[in-house]
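Posting this for the archive.
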Amino acid sequence: MPKPLLVFVHGWSVTSTGTYGELPARLRAEAARAGGPGLDVAHVHLGQYVSFRDEVRIEDVARGFDRAVAQVLAGAGAGRRFACVTHSTGGPVVREWLDRFHVQPGTLDACPMSHLVMLAPANFGSALAQLGKSRLGAMKAWFNGIEPGQGILDWLELASPESNALNLRWINDYPALRLTARAKPIFPFVLSGDTIDRKLYDHVNAYTGETAGDGVVRLAAANLNARHVVLAQPPLAAGEPLPSARKRLRDLVKVSDTRSAPTAFKIVPGASHSGTDLGIMASVRDDGRPHATVDAILRCLRVADGAGYDALRTAFDGENAQHQDTTRRLEIEKIPVLPDRVYIHDPHTMVVFRLLDDTGSRVPEMNLLLTAGPNADPNQLPEGFLTDRQGNRRAPGNLCFFLNHAALTGCPAIVDAQGRQRRAERIPRPPYGLRLLPRQEGKWVEHWAAELAADPGSLLDLVAPNQTTVIDLRLTRIVREGVLRFTSQLSPRSFRKDEPGPPA
């Protein structure tokens, strides 16, 4: 078979192919050496797309990618395929292309891409996206001072409808496609760092120093090992009496639980999102010296079949566990004159809640509370369990929680090299559950409070470290009798003050 070409696709807010740094040249040099992956080193193509105009959206860039790939392959000979290396938003761009042009039309056997190696991809978005384009444009250290485009920024906001749509197809539909076991397999990989470049840290915006991420993208938001769970209130039984207002609570039950196909995911030690010192892409030098990013990419590009893919995925899992061992989570930043700054890199999990009712409509005015302990008390949640909570601005019923998985499961004390305790033991407080409470009482149409029964580990069983779980909370829409009535009274009467009846 002909060797695949090598294609690069950059991230968001980029205006120069200089963003790739020396990585393309380094990979070409490595591939040319004995034992390198089977790549066509004479043909390396650097993508360049517009992401800084408001009218451009992810799907538009995916269409442009399809045309550009066709042009490159047209002159490369029949049967040629390509391996793709992306950075940041480039990952969702190529995933959107794969979904739009090959998965949905059912043409995967004709897909020209063999390997997709995503560096720090914002697959589930980035917490920074909600800051808005003017604030992000001012963060020159991260985004080169470019005025970012709103169209792509909307996709990147956590829990956006667009990212949810693509990711739910990945979770629910892609396992049956068996990407890595096809006659023409497609091998997806995610490589992401969890190091913060303190020189680039923005002191005004704490997200750039958030733990369990690289300063822009969280590990859980990059990882494509994900889960979709549907929890629903059972429908009202025929003739079921209306309970008192204080007892209008119906337990949530699990309706479905789907996991994505296992996807190779590696935490790249010492890698941040950006910057020439620690950036997962920009710090690569074409000098032949060992580099964690280059080593990981080459391991991915050497995969040639499903068995090789599974073996590398398993190896990555073992390396990740070793990297996140409790003995390696402590980071101490030495500050002249001032006391040392202590950072602890606990594994985190991300949960996207979507509040809907049984008609598919968004549920308004609800409070979502997590609970802990045998009494399902929010006040019993362990210390440090919540790192962040964001609601999507365009889809208010979509909420994203960033949870410290180590705090929920418990963690031994963290000590430094001298044996000094830097953090006390974290004590778990299971069982964990959740509760939805209406902010105001309905009358004609309403939603009742909901609760996930706090069986031991119930909520904890739905999440995993370094991963995202999308949880749909479907409440029963209660329509009371009297929304529409007939009367045989022919003389005019006002029905404005009529009282509602029981659930219809």
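The chain has two domains: 5-225+261-323, 229-258+343-479. The mean pLDDT is 88.
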